[in-house]
């Protein structure tokens, strides 16, 4: 009579163990699929030191594009004038998050930098973004 009382208990433990295994497996799968897109990006720029970073036509006039893998931001303050700055915020080292309204913006604490010369437009950052050397040739922009 006491044996049937134990069996449901064991079944419940097995069920819990199975749930725990599934619980661990799902986040791992999610992490793998998230990394897949990053790997694709990196694969495309595999020869980033020798290949072009982007096309000039991909950089908006009066705006810019952030390249997270290379940690740079390329801007076009005026038509045909291209600039490149580090994308690492001088405040606490976040990668800047957007380019809008003529500013390179950091989402961590709200600092903003000029797309023209990287100077601080809005704190708390106090130091400008350092300019990076680029080569613009044949409609392509390459990190120097
Ligand atoms: S790290 Fe960019 S504003 Fe703080």
Describe the structure.
The protein is an alpha+beta fold and 144 residues long. It has one domain (41-143): 3-layer Sandwich (Rieske Iron-sulfur Protein). It is 29% helix and 27% strand. It is built from one helix and ten strands. The chain has one helix spanning 3-44, and strands at 54-55, 64-67, 72-78, 81-86, 98-100, 103-105, 112-114, 120-122, 134-137, 140-143. A four-stranded antiparallel β-sheet has the order 5-6-7-8, with no helix packed on it. A three-stranded antiparallel β-sheet has the order 1-10-9, with no helix packed on it. A hairpin with a 4-residue loop joins β2 and β3 (72-78). The chain is globular, with a radius of gyration of 25 Å. The model is unreliable at 1-6 and 15-48 (pLDDT under 50). Bound molecules: FE2/S2 (inorganic) cluster (FES). Residues 89, 91-94, 106, 108-111, 124-125 line the site of FE2/S2 (inorganic) cluster (FES). One of its GO terms (cellular component) is membrane. GO terms for molecular function: 2 iron, 2 sulfur cluster binding; metal ion binding; monooxygenase activity; oxidoreductase activity, acting on paired donors, with incorporation or reduction of molecular oxygen.
What is the gist of this entry?
The chain is of the alpha+beta class.
Give average pLDDT, whole number: 77
Largest sheet: 4 strands, antiparallel
Bound molecules: FE2/S2 (inorganic) cluster
CATH architectural group: 3-layer Sandwich
Strand and helix order: HEEEEEEEEEE
Strand content: 25-35%
Q: What sort of overall outline do the alpha carbons produce when their principal axes are compared?
A: globular
Strand tally: 10
Keywords: 2Fe-2S, Disulfide bond, Iron, Iron-sulfur, Metal-binding
Pfam families: Rieske
Protein name: Cytochrome bc1 complex Rieske iron-sulfur subunit
GO molecular function: 2 iron, 2 sulfur cluster binding; metal ion binding; monooxygenase activity; oxidoreductase activity, acting on paired donors, with incorporation or reduction of molecular oxygen
């Amino acid at each position: 009579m006491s044996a049937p009382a134990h069996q449901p208990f064991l079944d419940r433990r097995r069920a819990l163990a199975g749930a725990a295994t599934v619980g661990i497996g799902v986040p791992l799968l999610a992490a793998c699929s998230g990394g897949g897109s990053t790997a694709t990006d990196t694969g495309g720029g595999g020869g980033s030191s020798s290949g072009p970073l982007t096309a000039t036509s991909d950089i908006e006039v009066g705006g810019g594009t952030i390249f997270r893998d290379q940690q740079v931001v390329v801007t076009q303050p005026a038509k045909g004038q291209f600039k490149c700055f580090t994308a690492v915020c001088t405040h606490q080292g976040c990668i800047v998050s957007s380019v809008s309204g003529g500013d390179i913006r950091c989402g961590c604490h709200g600092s903003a930098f000029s797309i023209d010369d990287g100077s601080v437009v809005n704190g708390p950052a106090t130091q400008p973004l350092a300019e990076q050397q680029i080569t613009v040739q044949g409609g392509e922009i390459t990190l120097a």
